[in-house]
Amino acid sequence: MTAFQVRPGNIAEVKDIALTAGRLILSQGGVIRGLTNWGTFLLTKPTKKHQMRQDSGHHFILRFDASPDVQMKMRKAVAIDPRMIRCGVVKLGKKGTLGEICAVPGKVEWRKPAVAEMAMVRFGEGV
User: Fold this and answer.
1) pTM (2 decimals)?
2) Cβ–Cβ contacts within 10 Å for residue 7, how many?
C-alpha cells in the first residue's frame, strides 16, 4: 500500500499521478488491488517541497502487489513530480496471506468536520 500526498487544488493532478503510478506498476507485472481517495487534509506538520511551503495535501491510497524493485521505481518516478508532496509505502501483511491483506479497509476512520475545525483553529479563525 502506498499513501500519496499531492498538492491540493486540482483533482486532475491527483488523477494524473495515480495513473502514472498505476501504469508503472502494471507495466512491470504488479497488480493494483484498490485506489481510495481520502480528499484534502492538513499535513501532520508543514513541509517545504519543490521550493513551496505546504500545509495541506490531497491524500489517496493505492493498494498494490509488486516486487521491491517496482516499488522503488514507482517511488522515484513520483518523487520527481513537482505536484507531489510526500509518498510512503507500507507493507500490509505477510507473504502468502492474501486473505489477511484483503480484509484491510481503505476508509478514513475519523470525521471530516473535526479536521475542518482543527484547521480553523490552527489558522486563527476560531470555531
Assistant:
1) 0.69
2) 20
Strands lying side by side in the sheet with 52-65: 31-49, 52-65, 2-6, 84-89
| Burial class of residue 66 (count of CB atoms within 10 Å of its CB; 0-12, 13-18, 19+) | buried
Q: Measure the CA–CA gap between 42 and 110, rounded to whole angstroms.
A: 13
Could you give the 3-state DSSP secondary structure of residue 125?
Answer: coil
Judge contact between 74 and 2, C-beta under 8 A. Answer: yes
* pLDDT, tens only, 42-72: 888 888 887 888 888 888 888 888 888 999 9
CA dist 42 and 60 (Å) reads 13
Residue 92 CB contacts under 8 Å (≥ 6 apart), including other chains: 1, 63, 100, 101, 104
Coil/strand/helix, residue 107: coil
The radius of gyration computed from the CA coordinates of the chain, to the nearest angstrom, equals: 16
